[in-house]
Design brief:
Layout: E1 7-8, E2 11-12, H1 13-24, H2 28-50, H3 53-70, H4 81-99, H5 109-112, H6 119-136, H7 141-152, H8 157-164, H9 168-194
Antiparallel strand pairs: 1-2
Helix pairs in contact: 1-2, 2-3, 2-4, 2-7, 3-4, 4-8, 6-9, 7-9, 8-9
Length: 195
């Protein structure tokens, strides 16, 4: 008989649960493993949502600080640890936008380049990301959130649904409408550039 292992956030569920339990018991190395496993995904999500690298770095640290302080109260209720982290990140984004009167510019320069990249490829990728970021401003807040969680945060449909407090069907519908809207915006922009 074979055992099917479900993976959530890069870990098999049992491994993630074991790490969380160890962290709850005060094992700092276990929390460090969770930190390492989820840091990049949380950071990318925050960067896409707020568009500011320095602020995203600070907020990512805040997410993990809050998680570290609250991990003893975390209860495994069918919601993976990663979804709990993204819920903390989502709440910080909401607080951030309450404090800010308008969105800052999107300085993505350093977050895109990789040392071995061809400079032309780097510039083209940067331009593509900037076009998508600009086009995403045409989306509703819920559509932007779904796109951020799914593609920048790398969450599955089920995890995204838990973070946003919506059904999986609603997430699928939001994602579909968001991608369709992005496609329309980008195609219209492309035809305007040609014409």
């Amino acid at each position: 008989m074979s055992v099917i292992t479900t993976r959530i956030g890069g870990f098999p569920v049992q491994d993630e649960q074991a790490l969380v339990h160890r962290a709850q018991d005060g094992d700092k190395e276990a929390f460090a493993e969770l930190y390492e496993a989820f840091f990049d995904r949380v950071y990318r999500y925050l960067l896409v949502r707020i568009g500011n690298r320095v602020e995203a770095e600070d907020m990512t640290q805040q997410v993990f600080l809050k998680a570290y302080k609250s991990v003893p109260s975390y209860r495994w209720r069918g919601v993976p640890f990663s979804a709990w982290l993204f819920r903390i990140a989502h709440n910080l984004v909401v607080d951030f936008f309450r404090r800010e009167s308008k969105r800052p510019a999107v300085p993505l320069d350093e977050s895109i380049a990789v040392a071995d990249d061809d400079p032309q490829d780097t510039v083209e990728r940067r331009m593509d990301v900037e076009r998508v970021m600009a086009a995403s401003q045409e989306l509703t807040a819920a559509q932007r959130e779904v796109i951020s969680l799914r593609f920048a945060g790398g969450l599955a449909i089920a995890e995204t649904a838990r973070v946003m407090g919506k059904s999986e069907g609603a997430i699928k519908a939001l994602q579909h409408s968001a991608i369709a809207a992005l496609r329309r915006t980008l195609l219209a922009e492309e035809s305007n550039d040609k014409g």
